[in-house]
Amino acid sequence: MNDIDAWVWWLVGAAALGIPLVVTAMPEFGMLAVGAVAAAVMAGLGFDVVVQVLVFAVVSVALIAVVRPIAARHRSQRPQLATGIDALKGKQALVLERVDGSGGRIKLAGEVWSARSLDVGRAYEVGQEVDVVDIEGATAIVI
Asked: What is the residue-level pLDDT of the chain in tens, covering all 143 positions?
């Protein structure tokens, strides 16, 4: 046991921290593994155990303090490009068949869609332009 250098133990620790990183997908384990690699470098350069542990702690805490808020901010942002039904909300459509609270047809983004009025008492006649406020299944909700 005494024949193994300290830097090897730090690398073993980094690899051991990589296992829960892969299993749990918690990036904090990866940041701790990077701290262990930094401590292995210090051990390889000949620094004593106190410096190695301090480097491990400082690098790990710094990464967690800096990277986690950035990652959380990116995770909470909506995608820049709306796709699917999200891209259709807010678009204008042309009424092809009378649209009221029970149904009708519109032309939306070059396709014919079934539609119904958001306000049950309101009806839209052929040729009118309407705004799509929501999509429920294959039906556009219009105003």
From this structure: 456 799 999 999 999 999 998 999 888 999 999 999 999 999 999 999 999 999 999 999 999 999 989 988 888 887 778 788 888 999 999 999 999 999 999 999 999 999 999 999 999 999 999 999 999 999 999 99
User: pTM of the full predicted structure?
Assistant: 0.54
- Backbone region of residue 137 per phi and psi (left: phi > 0; alpha: psi in -120 to 50; beta: other values): left
Pairing of strands 139-142, 111-117: parallel
What DSSP element (H or E) covers 104?
strand 103-108
Enter the DSSP assignment of 45: T
Neighbour-count burial of 87, counting CB atoms closer than 10 A to its CB (0-12 exposed, 13-18 middle, 19+ buried) = exposed
Q: Are 116 and 103 in contact (CB under 8 A)?
A: yes
Helix (H, G, I), strand (E, B) or coil at 18: helix
Q: What spatial distance separates the first Cα and last Cα of the chain, rounded to whole Å?
A: 76
Which candidate, 129, 135, 131, places its Cα nearest to that of 114?
Answer: 135
Cite the DSSP H helix spans in the chain: 6-24, 27-44, 49-76, 85-88
